[in-house]
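Let us practice reading a record.
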Amino acid sequence: MDDAPLYRALAEFADTDPLRLHMPGHKGKGLPGWERLARLDFTELPPTGNLYQEGGAIGRAEELWAAAFGMAACQMLTCGSTQGVLAAMTLACPPGSAVLVDRGSHRSIYNAMALLDLRPVYFWDKTCRGIRKALDGHQEIKTVCITSPDYYGQLFDIPAIARLCHQRQACLVVDGAHGAHLPFLGLEPFRGADLTVCSAHKTLPVLGQGALLFSGGRFGGEELRHAAALYGTSSPSYPILASMDLARAWMQSLEGRENYRRVCRRVQALRERFPALSGRVDPARLTLRLQDGLALERALQARNIWPEMADRGHAVFILTGMDSDGELNRLEDALVELDPCGEAEESPQAPSPEMVLSPRQALFAPSQTVRLSQSQGLIAAQHIGPYPPGVPVVAPGERVTKKHLAYLRAIRYNNYDTCEIQVVR
């Protein structure tokens, strides 16, 4: 494909039949069933380029990604959005500084705070009003971290939040792990953000662990590469990189755009037929609001239909342009048969945290294993919360309270009575 420069460079080099006296060990042959994939798996050589150096086919592929997102620079990643989050927080947050953090953040944000010894100030209200109030109370904060879209597909007003942050001379980091497809649908969900992380593999036809780190202009390509190299493998997967290159080219083609638009139309029809989350949401994600999301998940799994996740009040389905009409019909037929009921009562809210130790102190402290049901009053040394979505109910350094235990029991977390957790010794 002429518009996928990295894939083309790898394929052309492979076609020269090079004698591979270097890693990886499969030497382009591999095991039966993945010969084509193995042919594109190289190490850093002049024809293939280096992920953490400027230029070459990788650099051209990254420029195309940046242009597609309306960003100044892009760094491709092969260790998932976790690598991107760690790199973004390293760029945005001086070690030991305070940071305003969306409490609904993925656990990788909490790990970044521990590694960088950051002092978190949490916010729950993801409107400009809520963030302005939090900043007013903490004038020293110069970094804001927010998740959009969230696991349920809810989108927040990043352009307006970015303007607010920049008025306060604050850097805005957006964990957009679930939104890599959105710019290709004509949306601008990350406009104004200083750093944005997207998991290409979550919503695009990309191999697992493929992700992207974007800069809106505050940070240059060299800074992105340096930060990403701190947390990524020094032997990145070229098939992962090539799959991202191909996915971007396909998404910009008529076929890719039409496939996603078709799926978005089907999702909208399903939302109108079944009790679903609506409003400012990802047009390709179906989140049902239910009396018992876990029961629906079990019933669908019994029919060999596997939702992305479920909790007490929701079932979440990630739909992409790779889903055929026949597959969507199968989902719709199952939902018609099961007739899921809408949410009967408000889902419980997680209690506010009680921080005792900093994230760094807790994560690296000596720990011991106890039953969750016996942990009241103890200090968590791990994240406690359902995965997915990976949002801690209790984060490292926070006390496990009676209210936390009641909440975890109410949401039917992890076989509550037998679940074991790590606490600070």
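A brief commentary: The CA atoms of residues 17 and 54 lie 26 Å apart.
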